[in-house]
UniProtKB/TrEMBL annotation:
This is WLGC domain-containing protein. It comes from Phytophthora cactorum. The lineage of its organism: Eukaryota, Sar, Stramenopiles, Oomycota, Peronosporomycetes. Pfam families: WLGC. InterPro entries: LRR-SigEffector_domain, LRR_dom_sf, WLGC. Gene3D superfamilies: Ribonuclease Inhibitor. Residues 243-309 form the WLGC domain.
């Protein structure tokens, strides 16, 4: 499934240098056109499933950017970013990088002095995070599915963190970073979905990758939302295929069949196509919505199995 290429169209819209918002979903924009460079008042950029693999070196010149969201796919996403990309982006308040499975490292966060929201999701190759030295105003931190991450930076520069959530494995939860190494913890075992190898204990005599007091305090404060467990096969929502989409016929919340799975639902996770998934989360979400009378009105023709009458 190849999305429509809109590079020429984006270049045309940016020619005058007046573009302030770029929001694309399921369109092909592998490389930002040079014309974007002149849009110095760019405030908002959301690139979801656009096959974007890197940014040009001049991306740092978009100094007024306030919101940046780049969402890849399971098969294609960011593979590299300019090392100085964020050095002058002091206006950026939200940074969301998701499903960039081959991205091994992130640029320095040095310039992100006004960042309030940092969300990193499905970062399969990411082994460490940049220092948080400039993230004084960070309020919300989400780290979801970063199975190779074995430590966290010092949290002491963060003055008023209001939310810290982790989803799925981070070996720092059990490899001794927090104190005692426990390789029997499922978080440190071979991952049942991604197949990531089992973790090893950090050396007890190490001088690096030592949790600071501020980091430990943050983990204690948000203990109910960090290191909670790993994703199981019935929890994950794989990217849609032609087959899983065809079984749904474009109908949300319809019951669908997956061999060996008692319940499956037609759902469009993260703005992808409506496809059959065995994940329990959209099933439970929709049942609760119907029971509470919130969300989209239910259709008993397709949602009776969820409690719709």
């Amino acid at each position: 499934m190849n999305p429509k290429n809109v590079t020429a169209k984006v270049a045309q819209l940016a020619t005058m240098g007046l573009l302030q918002i770029v929001q694309l979903t399921n369109r092909n924009l592998q490389v930002l056109p040079e014309e974007i460079r002149g849009c110095t008042e760019m405030r908002y950029m959301s690139l979801m499933y656009t096959h974007t693999q890197t940014f040009p070196s001049w991306i740092k010149e978009l100094k007024q950017l306030e919101y940046l969201h780049v969402e890849g796919k399971a098969t294609i996403g960011l593979v590299s970013l300019p090392v100085d990309m964020f050095d002058e982006m002091s206006s950026l308040t939200t940074l969301h990088l998701g499903s960039n499975v081959a991205l091994p490292r992130l640029p320095s966060f040095h310039g992100l002095t006004n960042l309030k929201v940092l969300a990193l999701a499905v970062s399969m190759a990411l082994e460490e995070l940049p220092a948080f030295d400039s993230l004084h105003k960070l309020e919300r931190l989400v780290i979801a599915i970063a199975p190779l991450l074995d430590s966290l930076p010092d949290f002491s520069p963060i003055h008023d963190l209001k939310s810290f959530v982790t989803i799925d494995r981070g070996t720092w939860c059990c490899n001794g970073f927090l104190g005692e190494c426990d390789l029997q913890n499922p978080m440190c075992g071979t991952h049942p979905v991604w197949g990531t190898p089992a973790a090893t204990c950090l050396p007890t005599n190490r001088t690096e990758k030592v949790a600071s007091r501020a980091t430990l305090d943050a983990i204690t404060k948000f203990s109910k939302s960090v290191c909670g467990g790993i994703i199981r096969p019935t929890d994950s929502q794989p990217s849609p295929t032609e087959e899983t989409m065809a079984s749904c016929g474009g109908i949300l919340y319809r019951h669908c069949e997956i061999p060996g799975i008692p319940e499956a639902i037609c759902y469009n996770a993260r703005f992808m196509g409506i496809a059959c998934t065995a994940s329990k989360f959209p099933i439970e979400m929709r049942r609760r919505q119907i029971a509470l009378g919130v969300g989209d009105p239910c259709n008993p023709e397709y949602e009776a199995w969820l409690g719709c009458k």
